[in-house]
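debug: dumping io for the single-chain case to check the tokenizer round-trip. Nothing else runs in this session.
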Amino acid sequence: MKSILSAVFLLIMAAPALAQTEKLGVGDAVRVTVFQQPDLTTEARINEKGLIAMPLVGEVKVAGLSQHEAAVAIGESLKKGQYLKNPQVAVAITTVRSKQVSVLGLVARPGRYPLDDTSTNLSDVIAAAGGISAGGAETVTVLRDGKERKVDVFKPFKIQGGDTVNVERAPVFYIYGEVTRGGAYPITPDMTVMQAIAAGGGITPRGSDRRLKLRRPAAGGQLVETDAKLNDRVKADDVIFVKEALF
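debug: decoded output
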């Protein structure tokens, strides 16, 4: 009887690999069954790092594997930990969510969106979420299998099921004092203090381009003030202060 059950179990293990060649992805829910070990039966959702939590062995990476390959990986973990000599493991998908992408942050409609063959470009996914909101950055963070990648929205980039797209606040600088329009402004690549002043409408007749102060956040969070020059590079969260001219 035991041998018959074992044979049936092996057929169950093989079936997912034959019937389902697609890979497991982030967000998918799976059921893990270990033959003759009911305490190890587990239902889990694959997290953003591509892992599921298993009794005894802890987290096992299964994203990117077929159901059969995931079963083998879990079995190897049980064997390596010396919990079972010859574990027979089956993995079955219970809910498929890896064909979706999460869009978070500064977009009009954050949420989960389905992917198909015509909407896998990053720009299409952002558009489906209503576009980037005011103040959002054009360089977004794509989280895939636990790894982050910075991507320009306007450059071709294919999104995969299970990805998370996070639109963060665009980096800005602040300018005050004797400028026409003080306030916060977005930073452009390689921006200089001179360009930052121009973004603020230029220096007023009372101001001086020789009396510039720059306050920059230090590692500890405090602001460090230094004299600024027109060709100095501007960084995110810099505060530029244009002082009055000395007469």
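debug: round-trip ok. Residues 2-19 form the longest helix (18 residues).
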